[in-house]
């Protein structure tokens, strides 16, 4: 289980190309990848996205790619020999025609315009890909490591909260049978007070009323389903891969059962326990929003 929040950085140099890749991820319902990179290598953007999607299934991913050329390695000095010869021949002609003694030095020729020209080398595509992928792979590895560590913390905390909910369910299970017997006693006492001993109590009608109350306020099914959801959440939390959406659905079902229990039972003690359960469920829901 991984968190959707993380950061990774990677550097790599291949021949005359150096890359620095930074990746940040935050919560998002889907897998949304934004890549910012130099325009002249934008054709490699799809390669970057494919590599990230192999490791990141969900979340907003922001990728920042910086490329630098190693100083001097990306420039080639071209020599215009024909032009240099022309300069030399012209100088010799001037010397002969004007009877001016002197020789043209190599240093002088090199200073003439356009004899030497620095030209930027074309980027080697394979070299670009190797350098970029090297930095990208390191950044992704660091990112996944951080997301995994954060995910483990979330898992441990979520398991603890599910345990708290389970404990409250056990308390409700102990309290629930007493609610019916207490209702029977209160109803019996209320009717007896109203009859004031002048009329005989109809036990069969009392039993029917109690049975109706027990059926109406029965929460056994809801408690069983809530426990089942807790078991599913625990099992899912131990699974690998993207489990955030599944956990989100399970938490919604847990909240639905808790609401039903609260609406069916009028007992104040159980109502308070349901409030505690819903509080824990909300905490789990907040954590699930950050799970991949």
TrEMBL record:
Q: Which UniProt keywords apply?
A: Endonuclease, Hydrolase, Nuclease
- What are the protein's GO molecular function terms? hydrolase activity; RNA endonuclease activity
* Pfam families linked to this entry: YicC-like_C, YicC-like_N
Domain named Endoribonuclease YicC-like N-terminal is located at 1-155
Q: Which domain of life is it from?
A: Bacteria
Write down the required cofactor(s). Answer: a divalent metal cation
**Keyword Nuclease in record:** yes
Q: Which residues form the Endoribonuclease YicC-like C-terminal domain?
A: 172-292
Per the record, the similarity remark reads:
Belongs to the YicC/YloC family.
Name recorded for this polypeptide = YicC-like family, N-terminal region
């Amino acid at each position: 289980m991984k968190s959707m929040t993380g950061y990774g950085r990677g550097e790599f140099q291949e021949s005359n190309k150096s890359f620095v890749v930074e990746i940040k991820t935050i919560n998002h319902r889907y897998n949304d990848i934004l890549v910012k990179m130099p325009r002249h290598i934008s054709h490699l953007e799809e390669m970057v996205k494919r590599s990230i999607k192999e490791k990141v299934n969900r979340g907003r991913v922001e990728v920042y790619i910086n490329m630098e050329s190693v100083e001097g390695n990306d420039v080639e000095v071209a020599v215009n020999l024909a032009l240099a010869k022309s300069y030399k021949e012209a100088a010799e002609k001037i010397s002969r025609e004007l009877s001016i003694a002197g020789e043209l030095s190599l240093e002088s020729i090199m200073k003439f315009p356009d004899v030497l020209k620095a030209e930027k080398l074309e980027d080697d595509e394979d070299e670009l890909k190797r350098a970029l992928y090297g930095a990208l792979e390191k950044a992704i590895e660091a990112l996944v490591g951080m997301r995994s560590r954060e995910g483990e913390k979330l898992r441990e905390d979520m398991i603890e909260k599910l345990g708290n909910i389970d404990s409250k369910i056990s308390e409700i299970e102990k309290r629930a049978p007493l609610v019916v017997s207490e209702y029977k006693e209160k109803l019996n006492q209320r009717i007896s007070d109203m009859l004031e001993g002048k009329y005989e109590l109809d036990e069969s009608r009392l039993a029917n009323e109690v049975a109706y109350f027990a059926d109406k306020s029965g929460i056994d099914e809801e408690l069983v389903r809530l426990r089942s959801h807790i078991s599913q959440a625990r099992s899912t939390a131990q699974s690998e891969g993207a489990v955030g959406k599944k956990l989100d659905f399970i938490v919604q079902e847990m909240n639905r059962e808790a609401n039903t229990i609260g609406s069916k039972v009028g007992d104040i003690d159980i109502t308070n326990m349901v409030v505690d359960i819903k509080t824990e469920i909300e905490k789990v829901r907040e954590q699930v929003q950050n799970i991949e």
